[in-house]
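An example makes the point: we let one protein speak, the chain in one-letter code, the fold tokenised, and here it is:
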Amino acid sequence: MLFFGFGADQWGASNWLRVGPLSFQPSEVAKFGIIISLAKYIDKHHEKINEPITLIKILIFAFIPVVLILKQPDLGTALVFIFFILIMIFSAGLSYKYIMPFVVIAIIGLIAGFIFLTTSLDDYNIGDNYQLDRILMFLNPELDPSGRGYQVIQSQIAIGSGQVFGRGYQQGIQNQYGFLPTKETDFIFAVIGEELGFIGGISLIMLYAVLLFRLIKIAKGSNDMFGSLIVIGIMGMFLFHILENIGMTMKLMPVTGIPLPFISYGGTFMLVNMVSIGLVLGVGLKRGKKDMFN
């Protein structure tokens, strides 16, 4: 991707690859591949997972693609990887003595980031750094209402105008008249909120909750750790996409270009979603048909 990727001019990151007439996102395919390979690697070493050397090997193995994705730079996808990797390692029986340092590092990072934002941005101009712009727009999109902050502002207007029951199917002013950018991909939830209102939005969230609950049930009932970790990784991937996508449309999370599973338009991501669910069903069927639906 560092040599042949494209997309930096349109989306700020070179995360697309063109092979003949086809264009796709290798990072989306890598999610699926890393979940399977990491699950197998942890399965083979889970009895020694709390040994420092083994844990370091697992982290190095898992975070190589994260570093490459950050070089694109695609922070949103990298965060998805980090999220499901940590969930998989924790689910494999990681000791709490390793978890606390992660928490401390995260807190220190947040404090350091806050100090940086409050002390080093007096002379900063919007547009100097793409990733930093996203953080600033999360904190205050009004800093650039017609540029970087435009999406978030219009998304909030769309969701708020839907109120309880929505404006009606294909009756949304923000999305039908082109005020809401990328409405078919990253900001599809804003369309749902505007046209179907709170009822439509909460119904979709409840459906996602059922999906995640079923994934957890299948993971807990798996006959082997390998299958269980695969399902946990897929659940983590879906969970982060859902939280981040819905959150960013309401300014609860920074805008990172994360699509909404099974709803956002997109060939590579949709294919990975379908294959992931197919693999989960395969793991569930190994428990027997009766157990799978209980």
Summary: DSSP finds twelve helices and two strands in the chain.
